[in-house]
Amino acid sequence: MDELAQAFEKINKEIVDLTALVQSHRAQGDISTLDVDRLVKAVKDAADAQVTARLEEAEGRRPVYKGELVGPPGWRVPSRGIVQSGKFAGQQIDDMIFVANFLNRSAALGGGKVQPPSAELAGLVLNALGPTTVGGGDEWVPTGMAASIWADAFLASKVVGAIPHIAMPSNPFDSPLLTIGTWRKGSPNIAASQSDPTTAKSTLTATEQVLDFGWSYDLNEDGVVAELPTWRAEVTRSAAEQMDAFALNADGTDAGTGNINLDDSNPPDDSYYLSDGQDGLRHQYLVDATGQSADINTTLTDALLRAGIGRLGKYGAMANRLMMVTNAKTFVLSMLGLTNVATVDKFGPAATVLTGELMKYSGISVIASESVALAEDDGKLSVTAASNDEGQIALFHRDMWKAGFVRELLIEVDRDIRKRQFIMVSSFRMAIGCRGTRSSAVHTAGVHGITY
To answer: Which of 289, 268, 364 is nearest to 325 (CA)?
Structure first.
């Protein structure tokens, strides 16, 4: 059994044990005696472990031949291999090129004690870039590491990684939609009636997402190399979570009331969810097509969840293309106790499991994500934290949504003289859009007002 399968087997056992515990307490009518915080943490840890296992498995498949521009099958992102000897033996050459560029940039900005790369690091970079790169390589750095992190972020993403995504050639970008014509009976020597399929478009407008990370003025080569794996892992996970959060929560309402993420207060102008273009998944069923969400205002049952699925109309029968996304608390207290739940040990090999998928409900993938926050009874969030105590579940057809990117991950360095830090700024520009007229679309639905 390979490492990925072993990791999934361990996760499976944990989810099976959790399910048995919750269902036992539910059957005995003493659900209130459960240690909810501990169970929620267990679900989060299981989802994180699944992400880690996928990233480690992908890393293990990367070719590591020195000096070659290579990458795993199907990946757009190249790898320059592994340093073979010396002080940096075992490090990824991409990472060492990044370290050298970071040190050079920081030293040029001044204000600290930063030294340029050592002779060994400078030589390693020269050898790596010289034979294979047009120019001196500065135009490639730091996009090499950024592209690699970006690919990993899609592996770690629970929502955006599972829906179609495109590189937007312009901003805004009109993504064409084609309605297939009508099938007709054919007869010999008679031409079939011509179909005239209608065309439409889905306009994608990107919103920038930005993350700052501070490095001390006193940074040095050894310190950056030592901290880089942690920083890289954190940026990968953070970028994945941010893509999902924007896809789920995007809302362009910048006012004192009405934003689904802050319904009774004016959102700060730099709130990540303030979309410059289209709104996200939760907005679709809470605002655009309110009949698509069931406000149950009680504990979740199989009948109530099936009613939510029923709002998907014809899409409700396409279980293999549907997703449910909820938070860990709703996952534990509401979903694990339902009858039609199949835990991850009962379906498919590890390779078929979506990132973050810990169960299926009636064949529909169920994803645990903290980007679906607890909310008020109407599914929107209040400025008063205590009022946000009810769960919700977002249901959608994966092929009816599309994520667009004007620019993938960009990493830049500058100096902050007020904090006496070097600031590494990571950013990307993302859009989210769905198919069809939002006020009448039935490919997305929700269940909100879930109590425990």
So the answer is: 364
The answer as to whether 385 is a domain residue is yes
pLDDT in tens, 81-114: 678 788 888 888 878 888 888 888 888 887 677 8
- Position 284 in a domain: yes
CA distance 140 to 106: 17
Task: Domain of residue 330: give its range.
Answer: 3-45+241-451
* Domain count of the fold of the chain: 1
| Mean per-residue pLDDT of the chain | 86
Note whether residue 289 is domain-resident.
Answer: yes
Instruction: Kindly state whether residue 393 falls inside one of the protein's structural domains.
Output: yes
pLDDT at position 144 is 63
Residue 38, phi then psi, degrees to nearest 5: -65, -40
| Close Cβ partners of 88 (under 8 Å, ≥ 6 residues apart) | 96, 120, 121, 124, 225
User: Alpha carbon of 310 to those of 129, 227, 316: distances in Å?
Assistant: 57, 49, 6
Distance CA 124, CA 95 (A): 11
> Count of residues for the chain?
452
Distance from the first to the final alpha carbon of the chain? 39
Mean pLDDT value of segment 280-284: 98
Q: State mean pLDDT over 361-381.
A: 95
**Per-residue model confidence as pLDDT tens digits over 114-141:** 888 999 999 888 877 654 444 344 433 4
My answer on whether omega of the bond before 142 falls inside 30° of 0, hence cis, is yes
What value does the mean pLDDT take over residues 409-419?
86
More confident residue, 110 or 323: 323
CA 308 – CA 312 distance, rounded (Å)? 8
